[in-house]
Design the sequence.
């Protein structure tokens, strides 16, 4: 199914709307032949050890807080030693002339080690071990979201030195706090408006369009679909959507958790194979708040925001026009999906 008019825009500057955020992105496909004279970053060394005595996430090692990690053999979750949020404290509100506004905010920050192996990534982990990571995300959402004051649970992974990740050991984070953070709050408002206006779910309807069109799909299975969204901002941005309308991670059944683990492995393997490098990204799940309300508008999904543009060392920066005016990209979402779709699902480091 071709979207009427889209072919006319394939080589011309145009704008695309992100209906989840109500934001537009400028797309400039006529520039994809432009020579690159920007920064070339050092390629990270690829001689990783399975255990690093100096790593604060490896089993049995000492952390800066003085706590020692157990000799874990699956996932390992602990309260962040330097948390951005604290669970206790008085409720304080500042409001001066409607201009100086501040509120106290409570929360809990946890670290989730995905594997005892220092040298693996999601792409290289065994499927059964990746399933344990999915179970840990479900369990953390349930545990933290079940606390009376916690309104939202954000599960995320920040991977690669290029993204500012301080440690290559495979791990992610879970932050739970009182209020709904800005990004999911905007997506919630958009999903709610759509449901009220049309009586259906924004992302169910969007997924149906993408499955019919096909040209932005990357890979899929019985329960999940990975695609480059029509409104992608980062060059190889992707979204992972559940086929079933379900609001959050704890709503996933056993077969769905297996399918999610499998799809994440396949997508991240494609990412690593794209530039034959351990592909950096920020990824995270967006799900319904845990504020006790009913949230029929929410459709569980994950976003992958990778910075690499055309090689293991050339990244995209969101600066200049993008910081001051509008996000912009050259490669179209269709071109990016086409590149990712054409890649092998055998990891390049496995000798395949
Ligand atoms: Zn480690
Ligand atoms: Zn839905
Ligand atoms: Zn989202």
Sequence:
């Amino acid at each position: 199914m071709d979207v009427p008019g889209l072919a006319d825009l394939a080589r011309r500057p145009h704008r695309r709307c992100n209906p989840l955020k109500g934001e537009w992105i400028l797309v400039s496909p006529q520039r994809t032949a432009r020579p690159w004279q920007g920064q070339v970053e050092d390629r990270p060394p690829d001689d990783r050890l399975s255990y690093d005595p100096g790593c604060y996430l490896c089993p049995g090692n000492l952390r800066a807080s003085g706590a020692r990690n157990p000799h874990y053999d699956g996932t390992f979750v602990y309260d962040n030693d330097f948390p951005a949020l604290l669970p206790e404290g008085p409720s304080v509100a500042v409001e001066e002339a409607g201009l100086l506004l501040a509120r106290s905010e409570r929360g809990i920050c946890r670290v989730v080690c995905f594997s005892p192996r220092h040298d693996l990534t999601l792409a290289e982990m065994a499927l059964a071990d990746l399933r344990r990571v999915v179970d840990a995300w479900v369990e953390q959402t349930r545990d933290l979201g079940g606390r009376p004051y916690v309104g939202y649970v954000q599960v995320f992974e920040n991977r690669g030195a290029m993204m500012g990740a301080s440690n290559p050991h495979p791990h992610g984070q879970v932050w739970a706090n009182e209020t709904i953070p800005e990004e999911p709050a905007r997506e919630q408002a958009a999903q709610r408006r759509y449901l009220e206006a049309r009586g259906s779910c924004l992302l169910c309807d969007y997924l149906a369009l993408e499955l019919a069109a096909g040209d932005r799909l990357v890979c899929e299975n019985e329960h999940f679909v990975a695609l480059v969204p029509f409104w992608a901002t980062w060059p190889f941005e992707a979204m992972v959507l559940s086929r079933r309308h379900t609001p959050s991670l704890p709503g996933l059944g056993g077969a769905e958790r297996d399918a999610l683990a499998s799809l994440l492995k396949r997508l991240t393997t494609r990412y690593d194979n794209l530039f034959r490098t351990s592909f950096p990204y920020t990824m995270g799940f967006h799900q319904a708040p845990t504020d006790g309300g009913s949230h029929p508008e929410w459709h569980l999904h994950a976003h992958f925001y990778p910075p690499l543009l055309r090689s293991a060392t050339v990244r995209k920066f969101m600066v200049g026009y993008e910081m001051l005016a509008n996000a912009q990209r050259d490669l179209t979402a269709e071109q990016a999906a086409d590149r990712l779709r054409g890649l092998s699902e055998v990891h390049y480091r496995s000798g395949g």
Observations:
- The pocket of zinc ion (ligand 2) is lined by residues 201, 203-204, 245, 299 (CB under 6 Å).
- The two ends are 34 Å apart (CA to CA).
